[in-house]
């Protein structure tokens, strides 16, 4: 039996989570007191961009955020190891950081860029907050009756005041998979990617199919590679806040090596050897660089490359 060298708890964006303390979400009095307490830790975003320091970590604020954005509704993320309540706040579009009381603490930065330098806990919390705020932004209205819904339970649910329907944050499952054939694996790239960037293939799981079936379907649709879903090997998974997915890592043995790409999905796909994959992971390949470490594709490729066979 193959021993997997890592697991989902160690994959970036999902590792080092805090206690979500879901039992506090419906306790308005507790939430109000916690948000106002000196122990409160608050991260802020604006338009999906987190406030980060020059070093790349989150800027952590306290109850003073209520003065910076008095109308903002905080999202309760949980309790840290010291039992301090952790919140996230989406700043309004007209908030001017440079003229505010917190000018000079950091800048609102692109999350993808920032994740490469964030401490693990910061990355997990920023990703969670961004996913939830994006969900609220795109799900303001009840899918059942069309009325504007209300944000409840500290931001973890929306409730319709008209038809009483309840709506919960959406997470979209995505298979991200490495097709392998003997001592080779398949990598693909999209035209918009930087030169030298290659990765595993990926695709959304559709209604009525399993993870393994979706992975096999996507490999065939995008690259013409046939795989038996029954032979798929599950590795690990990772939350991915762009906008809100769960990336599920798999390895599938290929039944053929002839590549036929779908140009709407890929610019190119290639087979590389295990030795080449090891060079990629070591940063020594002359033409290919590894996916960023905060992406699950990095860990899938590293898992396969580190095996003897």
UniProtKB/TrEMBL annotation:
CDD domains: NUDIX_NADH_pyrophosphatase_Nudt13 (cd03429). This is NAD(+) diphosphatase. It catalyses: a 5'-end NAD(+)-phospho-ribonucleoside in mRNA + H2O = a 5'-end phospho-adenosine-phospho-ribonucleoside in mRNA + beta-nicotinamide D-ribonucleotide + 2 H(+). Keywords: Hydrolase, Magnesium, Metal-binding, NAD. Belongs to the Nudix hydrolase family. NudC subfamily. NCBIfam families: PRK00241.1 (NF001299). Its EC number is 3.6.1.22. Its cofactor is Mg(2+); Zn(2+). SUPFAM superfamilies: Nudix (SSF55811). It holds the Pfam family NUDIX. It comes from Henriciella pelagia. Residues 169-295 form the Nudix hydrolase domain. It is an enzyme of class 3 (hydrolase). InterPro entries: NAD-cap_RNA_hydrolase_NudC, NADH_PPase-like_N, NudC-like_C, Nudix_hydrolase, NUDIX_hydrolase-like_dom_sf, NUDIX_hydrolase_CS, NUDIX_hydrolase_dom, Znr_NADH_PPase.
